[in-house]
Amino acid sequence: MCGIVGYVGNQKAAPVLIEGLARLEYRGYDSAGIAILGVGGTQVFRKVGRVRDLEASLPKRLTGRVGIGHTRWATHGPATEANAHPQTSADGRISVVHNGIIDNAAALRERLAARGVTFTSDTDTEVIAHLIARSEAGTLEAAVLDALSRVTGTYALAVIDERHPDRIVAARNGSPLILGVGDHEMFIASDLAALVRHTTSVVHLDDGELATVTTAGFRTFSREQENTAKAPTSVDIDIEEVDLAEHQHYMHKEIFDQPYSIERMLRGRLDERFGTARLDGLNLGPRELRGFRRVKILGCGSAYYAGQIGASMIEELARIPADAEPASEFRYRNPIIEPDTLYVAVSQSGETADTAFAVQEVKRKGGEIIGLVNVVGSTIARDSDGGVYLHAGPEIAVASTKALTHMATGFAMLALLLGRVRDLSISDGQRIIAGLQSLPGQIKEIVSEEAHIAAVAGGLAGAQSLFFIGRVRGFPVAREGAQKFKEVSYRHAEAYQTSELKHGPLALIDETMPTVSILPDDELTDRNLAALQQVTARNGPIVVITHPGVIDDPAIPQITVPKNESELDPILLTIPLQLLAYHAALALGLDIDKPRNLAKSVTVE
Ligand code: G6P
Question: Whose Cα sits closest to atom 5 in ligand 1?
């Protein structure tokens, strides 16, 4: 989705902004722009397409040391140069970049048009630029506040003003915004990825908070203009984590990160002696944990599928009824919030609007909600009552891989903890711990089979349509497999419960429709094998994701993964499906890290 960067300091602003925007490319966008405030005033450059097209269009000498930049994902009006940000006031004095949606933009446009303002774009952002320019307040801060008092909606914004050329004023309401503190320089960004090359000292703005940044530093303040006196915190990101290294794509890099990132995630969190997990960030003691009679998991996209994997782990290990629901549905159905239910929000970015709203809804109704979140300090992490950080490191590719594995592993630890305050024995707890500790080595084994998985993927890439099937524990794995495949290869991939195949979808099976079957070695193996015969009997091609020793017919294409504890097997079974989707997309020559129409984190409705 849209990205914001801003710079004030002693360097030339343009290269800093361009580099920052390139770091935000992964979020998905269709146009980009920058505004540079220099000696002669503000210069604005906008371009439809990639950041590199914008960069190529810039004049050689662009010396201003204050500027703002933006990548836009069209919401109000199509992706055109006129609709790209920065948006400016009629006289060009004020420039604004904005993420989010202004709900009353249409009414404000009408009012401004009646007063003679001519609009040059279809955006809601232009309204803000005009409102600030028309404000009679003396300072830029007061003018921004004046404008914001007239708008309703969500925003993260950064504003520059030719009359106050030493500063950027930023504001946040419902859309993330971070300040980066440098040495006589300050950065603004909607996402840490744009900052980490420059500084790891950051300030997260809260909703309703504003900030002024200059070369001398920053000041944060409330809508009432009172200082909020935020202190910078240090973030733990390594620049290497946002670089591609030897990989061709971020998706590939992130798949291969998993053995190391999972090991890091587990560190210090497993208590072998008592066979349980240590999750201090939950802020819940054993008595409170025992009190929950139900668990409700909320997330979107892959986070929702991870939630389904988690729900079955919780039911199996803790014997508490658990289910997952798309947060995007939950928030709109006036959900019944029960006092003895533990609500869990799952999100890589911690900024997905639907999930963040669901968190608010649960809290408004007095529910207890924890977060399984990757990005430290993100909205959902801060709004939850407690949580488990995923420690997956930055995930840049739009298609989620390591974050999903980390979510599932986080659920395994939560299930273990919930189980151990109930009826799960120490030895069963120790069995799960041993299983968790085996994950990094086993993931390494799976990714070392890349060449074989790529060959299988090559065979699937030609199909227009595929089934992914699994049952019980394997069903969310199949759903995630289908999701990955459709996201990056643009093939129609549909997940079905293996048990439901005969109740309808079998009608579609013929020699052109492959089925990828999740077939673990567990209590359902025989039933799954029988269902597979219904496919082969109708000449449907099959690929089986399974454990060693399940399929003895060498003619059946299979990818085997090492066996773990049955409750944890879904974590490992998802890994070959990530590589399968990746290699199908590679064979098709597609833009793997930035699939069409998708955004990394959907921060608007
Ligand atoms: C978007 C992405 C998905 C992702 C979902 C949830 O739709 O395209 O890949 O799974 O958001 O994102 P989150 O950051 O909340 O995990």
Answer: 301
Distance 511 CA to ligand 1 centre (A): 33
> Order of strands across the sheet with 41-48?
41-48, 31-38, 66-72, 3-8, 186-189, 178-181, 201-204, 233-234
Q: Which atom of ligand 1 is nearest to the CA of 349?
A: 14
Which residues line the pocket of ligand 1, CB cutoff 6 A?
Answer: 300-303, 347-349, 352, 355, 398, 400, 598-602
Report the range out of 59-68, 97-106, 228-237, 309-318 with the highest average pLDDT.
309-318
Ligand 1 atom closest to the Cα of residue 407 is 16
Q: What is the pLDDT of residue 242?
A: 72
In tens, the pLDDT along 407-441 reads 999 999 999 999 999 999 999 999 999 999 999 99
Question: What is the tens place of the pLDDT at every residue in 366-376?
Answer: 999 999 999 88
49 DSSP 8-state letter:
S
**Closest Cα to atom 11 of ligand 1:** 601
The span from the CA of 369 to the CA of 391, in Å, is: 20
Give the model confidence (pLDDT) of 302-315 as tens digits: 999 999 999 999 99
Q: For 591, which DSSP code? A: -
Mutate to test the pocket of ligand 1, among 26, 192, 349 (most ligand atoms within 8 A of CB): 349
Helix (H, G, I), strand (E, B) or coil at 24: helix
State the distance from the centre of ligand 1 to the C-alpha of 267, rounded, in angstroms.
Answer: 26
Please compute the mean of the pLDDT values over residues 384-389 and round it to a whole number: 92
Q: What is the pLDDT of residues 201-229, one digit of tens each?
A: 999 999 899 999 999 999 999 999 999 99
Residue 502, Cβ density class (10 Å: 0-12 exposed, 13-18 middle, ≥19 buried): exposed
51-69 tens-digit pLDDT: 999 999 999 889 999 999 9
pLDDT of residue 555: 87
SS3 content of the chain, % helix, strand, coil (to 5): 40, 25, 40
252 C-beta neighbours (distance < 10 Å), count: 23
Residue 49 burial by Cβ neighbours in a 10 Å radius (0-12, 13-18, 19+)? middle
Residue 233: count of CB within 10 angstroms of its CB: 13
Q: Cα(600) to centroid of ligand 1, in Å?
A: 6
pLDDT averaged over every residue in the chain? 93
- Ligand 1 closest atom vs CA 352: 15
How far is the centre of ligand 1, averaged over its atoms, from the C-alpha of 216 (Å)?
A: 37
DSSP 494: E
pLDDT at 157 over 70: yes
- 496 contacts 602 by C-beta, under 8 angstroms: no
Q: What is the set of active-site residues?
A: 2, 600
Residue 239 reports pLDDT greater than 70 = no
Q: How far apart are CA 509 and CA 494, in angstroms?
A: 13
CA distance 567 to 144: 54
